[in-house]
């Protein structure tokens, strides 16, 4: 049964490194949530290839932009990029058709791309008033 409202993950996030035998046995190795923190200024190009991500935390870093490749994360449901130095949101954000929650508070954003209107599942545009 699908959830109607997003429930934040448990405060104690679980981290797991798989053993070789677990991989050999075919245990699932994909994770659906990723948190990147530590005053990060640049994101790896490989991040935008992780199509199965549903939750991405980029908050509290030193990011100046989100690259257009963010549109590759087609399964993304929740994106938190608040508390950065982001100036522009790329129009490819509209390709995130499963996006339900977008947090962009405390950035340097002046306007949102009209393509965001293609995100019909979007329920929460968190604290955007601080940035506009």
UniProtKB/TrEMBL annotation:
Keyword presence, DNA repair: no
Keywords from the UniProt entry: Leucine-rich repeat, Repeat
One Pfam family here: LRR_14
Annotated gene: LOC129924693
Protein name in UniProt: CCR4-NOT transcription complex subunit 6-like
Superkingdom of origin: Eukaryota
GO cellular component terms, A-Z: cytoplasm
Every Disease resistance R13L4/SHOC-2-like LRR domain range: 36-125
Organism name: Biomphalaria glabrata
Signal peptide extent: none
């Amino acid at each position: 049964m699908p959830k109607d409202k997003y429930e934040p993950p448990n405060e104690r996030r679980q981290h797991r490194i798989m053993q070789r035998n677990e991989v050999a046995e075919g245990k699932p190795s994909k994770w659906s949530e990723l948190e990147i923190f530590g005053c990060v200024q640049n994101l790896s190009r490989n991040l935008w290839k992780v199509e199965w991500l549903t939750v991405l935390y980029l908050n509290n870093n030193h990011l100046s932009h989100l690259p257009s490749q963010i549109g590759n994360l087609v399964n993304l449901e929740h994106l938190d990029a608040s508390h950065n130095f982001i100036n522009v949101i790329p129009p490819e954000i509209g390709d995130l058709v499963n996006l339900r929650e977008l947090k962009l508070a405390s950035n340097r954003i002046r306007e949102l791309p009209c393509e965001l209107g293609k995100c019909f599942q979007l329920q929460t545009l968190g604290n955007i008033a601080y940035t506009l």
